[in-house]
Amino acid sequence: MSNFTDVWSTLDWDDISLRINSKTTRDVERALSRNKIDREDFMALISPAALPYLEPMAQRAQQLTRQRFGNTVNFFAPLYLSNLCANECTYCGFSLSNKIKRKTLDEDEIRRECEALNALGFKHLLLVTGEHKGKVGMDYFRRHFPTIRSHFDSLMIEVQPLQQEEYAELKTLGLDGVLVYQETYHAPTYALHDLRGQKQDFFWRLETPDRLGQAGIDKIGLGALFGLSGNWRTDSYMVAEHLLYLQQTYWQSRYSVAFPRLRPCTGGIEPASLLEENQLVQLICAFRMLAPDVELSLSTRESPYFRDHVIPLAINTVSAGSKTQPGGYADDHPELEQFAPHDNRSPQSVAAALTLAGLQPVWKDWDSFLGRASQENVGGKQTGNLSGMRIP
What we know:
This protein is an alpha/beta fold. It has helices at 4-8, 13-21, 25-33, 39-45, 54-69, 107-119, 138-149, 164-172, 187-193, 202-206, 208-214, 232-249, 277-290, 304-314, 347-356, and strands at 72-82, 88-89, 124-129, 154-158, 177-179, 194-196, 219-222, 254-258, 295-298, 317-319, 360-362, 364-365, 389-390. The chain contains 15 helices and 13 strands. The longest helix has 18 residues, at 232-249.
């Protein structure tokens, strides 16, 4: 069976970079005039030529977001289970060679974290670990999933890439979605930064969303770590190609795209290319125009000011009050964190800011006995059951 590697092998990085940078204002205006944009239009909208068109791009992106998702913004929290990692990566605080205290949560610690998150209002959870399949692998997940699942209505993971059958097994234990970021789609750059461990295998990671689709996982999250490669625009286009391929191949699954920018961390590197804030707005709006039905997420890597102004444009999923170290909600230890969040406001403060902007923070949008409605019935065009929605 073919997979995205076959598509990736036909995409020439330098040629794509040249095509993006060759786009003109006429190309941008043509893209803005179309009801549905194609790949060439997307190239134009992420090109340097599109920067002067941020206002009409933002208006179009906001219109599409309201049509599809209404005024709702889903809240979730990351729960870091372990900072153990068998990989050597130049950009991550969990990297094997970093001399930091290592910690893996046990059953009691996990329960306390879950209770602390529930007290903050969260019912959607993202489990995060370093990549250490020996000590934080399937046995660990099998042991602790039941406890975690009993506290939350939706469960996603961001862990090491797994086998298709392992994803299928976790689905039976309550897994709803998986986030897997390629970091960069430029193989030579990837090799410069992923130096040891299974993460060295570029194609094993690249083909993970295929395994997720084949396992029938409900939601698949994509993204690149912007600032790692020398060209954020080309990496962005590669994410778009990956998304379009997956939507066509595994149409039963839902998709999300995130926009993480390289952040300071212990032993970390400086970004190879800067994705400025106005360029990030440009990128987010372009993705909304390319994929109106896809969930777009913005994390606490970004500043409060930036999030408050950009979320109302095109974002429909956010994290808030995030702790990026194991045990951080019940007992904060910053020295264990993966990276330093920029938006350190409480979840309630973030929710209040979004409410002031006319949005509706959603902490829970379905009940298990009613089925997973998720984004259903929002914006007047979908069907489903939202009787489990809880909007404070």
